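Readers of this paper often ask what the protein records in our data store actually look like. This encoding replaces a full spatial description with a residue-level series of whole-number codes. For reference, a complete record is included directly beneath this paragraph.
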Amino acid sequence: MKNLILIISLVCFSLVSEAQTKAIPLNFHGVDVYAMMTPKQTYEVVGVSTFKTTKSALSNTEWLDIAMQQSPVETFDAIVTRNGMNIQYIVYKENQELNNGILTNLKGEDFETYYFSVPTREYTVVGKQDLGKTVSSTSFYDIMGDLWLRKYKLKHDAIIVGENEVQYIIYNL
């Protein structure tokens, strides 16, 4: 009976771990940016910062310039943020060539949202939209919510939010 429970637990764990969506973070001036995602590798938080930003700053890399300037530490490998205003500055505990992350799962939508990151899987862009004119939010959560509410006419598996642009993508088989 114990073996059966152990086997079922292992199968469930493997299914859950496979369902995690991996992404490659933006590298901004030599610093990895984990926006709306978590680093896969082990790390240590070496500083934190909170700042106010503007709507337009969150739709381009201006918020990253602010985050770099307001860093409470001189040396860090990456920044982690869930909203673009609260920043954790981290150093990796292990030196790895590929610094992938796991997307934050929000609202249980049918498609993933990559914020200043790209999928590890191959994909094709099926459409683009200007982000600056269409989003009026002041946090990553709100921007993602605004994008989810829009009904884009082309079928897509995910969206990539980047420098003033939204890309609608489908994954290649």
